[in-house]
Amino acid sequence: MTMPEIQAIPDAALEVIGPDGARRVVRVSDSPFMIGRGGEAGNHLQLPDRRISRNCAALVYDGSCFFIEDRGQRSGVFVADEKITRQALKDGDVIHFGLPDAYEIVFRAGDQSLPQLLNRLENISTMEAGTGGLGKLNTLLAATALLHSNLPLDEVLGTMLDHAIEVTDADRGILLEPQPGGPMRIRLARQRGGRMLPIEGLTPSQTAIRFAIDQKRGVITEDVAQADFDLKAAQSIIAQRLRAVVVIPLFALSHPRLGESGEINPRGELLGGLYLDSRRPAAFSKLERDILDALAVEAASVMDNARLVARERERQRLEQQLEIARQIQEALLPREFSHTFLQIAGMNQTCQTVGGDYYDVLPMEENRTALLIADVSGKGLGAALLTTMLQGALSGMTIGQEPARVIAHINHFLCLHSQLERYATMFFATMDHAGQLEYINAGHPSPLLLRNDEVGAPFPAEFFPVGLIPDAPYRSARFQMEPGDTLVMFSDGVSEAMNSAEEEFTVERLKQAIAGKSDVPVDELKREILAAVEAFTRGARQNDDLTLLLVRYPRAN
Question: What contacts 24+ positions apart, CB below 8 Å, involve 212-219?
Fold first, then answer.
């Protein structure tokens, strides 16, 4: 049996020119020599452009010359700008596929030896590809240097958009940023040529944006006509006749977090998105994609740094405001008690910059002195605001009113004006020179009475806190103080102070701290109470404000 004779193929090559101008040379090794998109159809020359059919064209040698045949290209096969079905080729013929910004193929054959031709074309290819690659890398380096400059952030990001448009040859670029409870909004928009675009009326494809964010990866669609149905059917894409769309989500990369499945997710908070589109199909090389990814990473880094700087400035601003609030709150507390016949010591120690505890000593008519300690629910700025309202309400009271009317007024005032959903426990009392104490305990821990070195708690909380129920009834009670008696008023930050084992100091320990000390001056007694609390807590962080008001009814000289 005679083996079939294998037909020899003369030397020939195809010079492939990409959409970006890069060149490469492919030797024609078989007949038919298949050309198309992807390798699954057995193509010898693969052109990565979704507009080109998988079975596109074939180069065939018939024994005398090479022919180019259309094997199913949707837009047709052209030689010298004429659409062909089958066409004989001569050296230098240019083959294309009826597509703008797409691949071109130059057929190379002739008198010169093919090795010399290949060497010449490979040198040209290397030089042009290198020049194009270096040009694009220079674009990346220039963009990176600018992104980390000290120019205003929007100017830097706008130029970054210009570089992204230049790399991708897009019609426009848009920088997106997230907004609570809605689609991402446009922060900046540029068009080709470095011109700013007004953001009003711009409609980037929300379908592509949502997909990129949901998938947490870039979406690069070189030809919408070949894309998934959802993107192809998107109204904004149809209305604007878009053919190429790029969306790259920008994530904070400097703060890794644990993913739902337990793996470390290097993507942090969503900072925004880089969006590019064009009315022309595109074909992105690997270098262009890499440069685009690098630009996106650098832009995300700059945006993340700017966000952290803004947060730090906001934190400093809030700290300054809180410090002002603390100074105002301290100024509301009484500084000295020379206006009263009583021996008094008081202190307030907040667990945060500002607090919700308040005490005061107010002179009244008829040789009486008003005593007050209050504890607003909660902590921080909200509680501090309510203590200020409380102090304001007290300052507006008629000096000669009775405790029940004072408390009723404060309760009504706070219920009417406070929108903070907070209330305050309060112990309010008046004392005259005869030691007559008239008081109301509105939900506050009972003050302790130190009498003849023994300690009791004869002032139970019988009424609702103020600011809780608008029409709550209040009624005062009377108690006769004896010379040498000491009233120890405190907030629950004292009795509930905790050690590292989360054990409370308790009222019983407070009683033990003051028992047997009727002759200790009130200032020293206050210091001994604080020392007992500190010794118990051993430096453990406290979660409540600590306030003391000590009042001694003096003995006659």
Answer: 212/247, 212/248, 212/249, 212/273, 213/184, 213/249, 213/270, 213/273, 216/249, 216/251, 216/267, 217/249, 218/246, 218/247, 218/248, 218/249, 218/292, 218/293, 218/296, 219/245, 219/246, 219/247, 219/248
Whether the bond between 32 and the residue before it is cis, its omega within 30 degrees of 0, is: yes
Q: How many structural domains comprise the chain?
A: 3
CATH for 225: 3.30.450.40
Q: What is the residue range of 506's domain?
A: 333-552
Phi and psi for 247 in degrees, rounded to 5?
-130, 125
3-class secondary-structure state, position 19: coil
The average pLDDT across 207-211 equals 83
- Rounded CA-CA distance 143/284 in Å is 19
Q: How far is CA 343 from the centre of its chain?
A: 54
d(CA 264, CA 511): 53
452 shares its domain with 386: yes
HEC per residue, 403-443 = HHHHHHHHHHHHHHHCCCCCCEEEEEEEECCCCEEEEEEEE
The per-residue pLDDT for 4 is 44
Distance CA 204, CA 181 (A): 18
How far does the chain reach from its first CA to its final CA, in angstroms?
Answer: 143
Sign of dihedral through CA atoms 433, 435, 439, 441?
Answer: positive
Is 323 a member of any domain?
A: no
pLDDT in tens, 370-420: 898 988 876 666 666 666 666 666 665 545 567 888 888 888 877 876 655
Does 429 lie in the same domain as 387? Answer: yes
Question: How far apart (Å, rounded) are the C-alpha atoms in residues 73 and 41?
Answer: 13
Which residues in 182-206 are b (16+ Cβ under 10 Å) and which e?
A: eebebbbbbbeeeeebeeeeeebbe
Q: What is the CATH number of the domain that holds 392?
A: 3.60.40.10
Confidence of residue 286 (pLDDT cuts 50, 70, 90): low
With cut-offs at 50, 70 and 90, classify the pLDDT of residue 39: confident
